[in-house]
Write a structure and sequence with these properties.
By secondary structure, the chain is mostly helical. 74% of the residues lie in helices and 0% in strands. It is built from three helices and no strands.
């Protein structure tokens, strides 16, 4: 099931969105949907990365050299 969301964009962003939509032959909704999906995926990645950094630091791992030392 899909829900509709209304957003407002500055005129310049709307123009660029329309240009890309035309060039890519993809509708605006698909472009915005993909942009939001990518943003959320990057956000989730950064959250996981931060948790892993904290865990690594708690185990004395602060650099790539520390990782190589441990796995060698």
């Amino acid at each position: 099931m899909r829900d509709s969301v209304t957003i407002s964009l500055p005129k310049e962003i709307r123009k660029k969105l329309d240009q890309v939509s035309k060039q890519e032959k993809v509708n605006r909704s698909d472009l915005v949907r993909e942009a939001v999906r990518m943003y959320l995926a990057k956000r989730e990645f950064r959250e996981i990365q931060q948790r892993l950094i904290l865990e690594a630091r708690s185990k004395g791992i602060f650099s790539e050299e520390d990782v190589f030392r441990i796995i060698s």
